[in-house]
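Risk register update: the risk of archive-format incompatibility is retired. Evidence:
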Amino acid sequence: MRILTDVRVEISVESVAGVRIAEQCGADRVELCAALSDGGLTPSVALIEMALAQTTKTEVHVLIRPRPGDFQYSRDEISVMVRDIVAARRAGARGIVIGALNSSGAVDPACAEFVDAAESMQTTFHRAIDVSESSQRALEQAISLGFTRVLTSGRQPRVLEGAPVIKDLAQRAGGSIEVMACGGVRACNAVQVVEATGVRDLHAAVRAPIRGQPGGAVSFAGVGVPDGFDRFETDIDEVAALCAVVRRPPPGNSSVP
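Archived output:
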């Protein structure tokens, strides 16, 4: 198996169990969310605190997203997001994942408030970049605002379809901001993704359906869950396989044969 070196892995999770899996498998970061079936929403402070209690090596980065849907937010929603950033920072999170666009599709100036509220935390501008009026201009704006990284699938549903755009963004970034690739990243394509894009950060939401208690005519199963199942949970086998593709080189070595 081809092994990647000096590549970081982030796993999107929505439970304490998911955080434990990421830590156990050696993921560098988790993007901690609620409601991944809705694209991810801000998790509770209690979930943040419990996630942090499970980790010694894996960083906890908190998604800040107050509702499903687009990324054009009202003043009230922006105020909620700033308060959630402060709560995540006070809880001890290492970073936040956030983004907002204005009515023209450019990065909303409110993002400066988000970066300010984050203080010393890392800041990831999320996939709002993929529906912005220009990913290239959004990248420039994220750099000027002081974001740590951007998360993108290259404006396509699947990472390899968007690879040319991701590669262009990584080249434009020139080391001034990290570009993290997402959109169906798995162990089976991780090497191809890195080779096609040049990124050193990979993001994956790897979940498996879980059977629940039979409920008769009334069902509260999650959105998109296959028939006969109840919800999704982080897939330990897929996380382990992806993390196994990424190994740090031993001291003194710059590559692995």
